[in-house]
Structure formats: structure tokens, C-alpha cells
Amino acid sequence: MSDLGNFLRKFNECFSQGTRFILRAKKFNLVHTTFLRLLFKGNRKSIVLAVFLLLASQVSLSESHRWWSLDYLAQSFAEIALKTEYGVKEKTISKWVGPIAFYYDHQVEDQKLHEYLTGLHLRHLTAITGIAFVPVDKKEKADLIILFTQEKFIRSTLQQYMGRNSMQLVNHLTRNSVCVAHIKTTKGGAIKAARVLIPVDRARSHAKLVSCIVEELTQIMGLLNDADTVYPSIFNDKTYNELLTGLDYILLRIL
Question: What does each C-alpha distance from 231 to 89, 93, 132, 234 come to in angstroms?
């Protein structure tokens, strides 16, 4: 966890100024005004501070814990990155070590819309992690396949993309999830392949098309678990976050 410790120390230095501002601010409209000023500056540090200030303004300062505290960040990272939705895995961080070649597999209409929404988030992930997403014209060349399909094709699609031992994933998707992501890693934790499956009709019926795209594509970066104890986060199924929160941003940066 030395890498985690180093990052958190850097994070603490970077955000110390923003933290002091939040604790002194008595009116959140002052925070929001500062958020806009930082955002319009356009540089990386200003954008990070802007996200921090806005998200912090949504959390009561009287709470016993704050999500930006170092202890809470470390606990959240361990919960999301070192576990899976199916239980504890080996204590190895899963992450990409180079550019990600990706391919869209469309089995439904609205291809332009789906690629537009996905492209927005892929660019967002690149800005946060520095990992580039490179489109390819054949799925055989792809590290990541993003499949837009229908609910009736879930079982056959999972078996096709994830192998014959995918029944657990099928049952999990059917019972608990709207969409699903799956990765394959080396023994050292490097991610070598990933699949994101979005049954569009199912996602739309739950009003979760955007959140499906955001959550599943973020999970295949190496943040594999969902946890009700991590808040505010897109990985918390009991909240209404459809886009990345400040906490999610930091978890991605730690990777």
C-alpha cells in the first residue's frame, strides 16, 4: 500500500487549500461561485479543486466523517479496488498498464447516441487516469469490447464473451444489476481484456442508460466492487449518483 500512501500524501497537499476554504465558508453560494471561477481557468489543478469544492458543499460539515479525509479515502479504495461484487479477491490491484484498444459491438439501434455518450465518458476517464482509449475496426484487435444489446440476448452474449463459466455473472445480472462488466487480468494484476455489456432496453426501463455507461466503464479500470459503505460514489447502489463524484475521481487517481 506504499503507492496508496504516497498518493494520499500528495492529495492531502494538493487539497489542503480547498479544505481550509470549505471549513471557513459559511455560505455555500460562495463555494459555488469559487467553483465556477476555478472551472473556467481550465488547468488541471483548478478543475480538480473545482470538483472538490462542489462535492464538498453537498456534504454536511457536521457529519462525523468526511469523504475527503485520508482514512476514509484509504478505506474506500480498499473496499472498491481490493474486493469484487462476488467477495474478496487476492490483495492485488487490477489496472491497465497501457493504452486500451476498444471496439463498439452494436446489436441495437441508436448507435450514434450510444457512441456519443460512451465517448464522453472515455475522454473523461482519460483526463483523470492518463490512460488512452484507442478505437479499432475489428473486435479481434480490441482489449475492451463495449456491447449494446437487448435483455433477451443477455445469456447467450455473456456466454459468448465471458466463457462457459459465466452462469454466476448471468444470475447476478438478472437478479441484481442492470448492466455488467467483466475483466481478465494477469497474475500480477495487469488488466489484459475487458467486456462491458449494456442491455439498452433494460437500462432504459430503469432510467439508467447513462449511469450504466459511466459505472461499468469506470469499473473495468480496476474499481471492481459496489459498496453501500462508500459514499458519495457511483459504486454505491443505494444512491442516485449517475456521474462520477469527487470521491470516484480520487479513487481513479489512486489507481
Answer: 22, 21, 28, 8
Domain spans, the chain: 2-88, 100-221
SS3 188: coil
C-alpha cell at 74: 484509504
- Cβ atoms of 219 and 177 within 8 Å: the answer is no
- Region of 239 (left: φ > 0; alpha: ψ -120 to 50; beta: rest) is beta
What's the Cα-to-Cα distance from 105 to each of 74, 122, 143, 154, 239, rounded to whole Å? 36, 16, 13, 14, 30
Residue range 100-221, CATH number: 3.40.390.10
Helix extents (H) in the chain: 2-24, 28-41, 44-56, 70-81, 111-129, 154-162, 167-175, 200-205, 209-219, 246-254
Average of pLDDT values for 97-103? Answer: 97
Quote the cell numbers at residue 1: 500500500
Per-residue cell: 249: 475521481
Collect all residues with Cβ–Cβ distance below 8 Å to 123 and sequence separation of at least 6. 133
- How far CA 228 is from CA of 60, 65, 85, 168, 223, in Å, comes to 18, 15, 12, 21, 14
179: left (phi over 0), alpha (psi -120 to 50) or beta: beta
DSSP code, position 1: -
Each residue's pLDDT tens digit, 15-45: 444 444 444 443 344 444 454 455 455 555 5
pTM: 0.73
For residue 151, give Cα distances in angstroms to 122, 195, 198, 210.
24, 16, 9, 17
